[in-house]
Amino acid sequence: MSDDEKPAGPARSGRPRSGPVKPGLSPALVACTVALALPWSHPAVADAAPDPAVRYVALGDSRATGSPQDLLSIRDGCFRTSDAYPQIVADTLSAESYVSRACAGAKTENITTTPQFTVTGPQPPQIGALRPDTTLVTVSIGGNDIAWSSLVEPCYTPAPGFDAKCRSDATTARRMTDALAALGPKVSATLAAIAAKSPAATVLLVGHGGIFGDRGCWPYVPTSDADAAFVVQFFVRMNAVLADAARANGARFVDVAAAAVGHDACAGPVRRWFEGLVPRSFTMPLHPTHEGHRAMASLVVAPLP
What we know:
By secondary structure, the protein is α/β, with parallel strands linked by helices. It has a domain at 55-143 and 178-212 and 238-302: 3-Layer(aba) Sandwich (Rossmann fold). It contains 10 helices and 7 strands. Helix 3 packs across helix 10 (290-301) and helix 7 packs parallel to helix 8 (225-248). The radius of gyration is 30 Å and the shape is globular.
C-alpha cells in the first residue's frame, strides 16, 4: 500500500495529517466546498421580524353580538351591534382586519358544520370566516347547547320572599350534570376545528357566568339567596368544563365569572355588567350590558402580548 492509500493518521508533529490535494483542485474550489458543508440559512428567514398585524375573527352566540340598542342590529338576523365586546377588542388592538360571525342563538354546530336559520335567512357555518393567517379568534359558545336558562328556571319564584329550593331538587341536579357532561366534547371538537383552520391563531374561549350573584333580587333575579348561590355554583362547574376543553386544544380560557363578582344583575346601574330575567335597560334578558361588554373586552385583551 502506498503512502497516498493509507488511512490518515496523526503526523509526527502531533497535528492531524491532511489528505493530499489532488492536482487541478484549486484553493478557491476547496474553500467553496468547505463553505457548502457548513450549516446554512437564508438571510430572509433568519432575519424575518414577527408579523405584528392583528387579524381577528369573533365567533359565538348572543353574548358576543352586543346589546341591541338600534333596530339595524336585526339586519342580518344575528343582532350584531357596534358595542359588542369583539368590536371593542378590535378597536383596542387596532386590528388590521376584523370580522364577527357571532349570531344570537348559535350552538357549537353552527360554528363548525351547520347553517343557522335566522329571521332574515340562513347564516353559513361561522368557521368559514377563518383563514390560515388569522391571528386572533374569540369564541363565546355553549349556553345554547345546554339551554342553561331552562336548567335554572326551577329556581325562580312567583313572588318576593319565596324559596323554590331548587338546590335540593334531584331532578334539577341531574339535568344540570347531564347537560355539562354532554357539553365538554362539543366545545372541544369546536376548538379543534378552529385550530385546524387557523393553526397560528391565539384562540380565546370566553367563559359564562356573572349574571347571578350570592343573592336574589325579585323580579330581576327572582330566586332566594340560597338558590342564587346554587346557580353560581352551576356556572363554576360549567366554566370548569369550558376551561378543560380550552386546555386540551391549546386555547386560553377567559374567566368572566370571577371578574364579575359584585357586578351581577342585582347590582346597581353603575356596577351592573349583566341584566337579569327582567332587564332594566335595552339589553336582552340574561345578557351583558354595555358596561359588561366593555369589561369583557378588557378581560379578553389583558392576556394578549
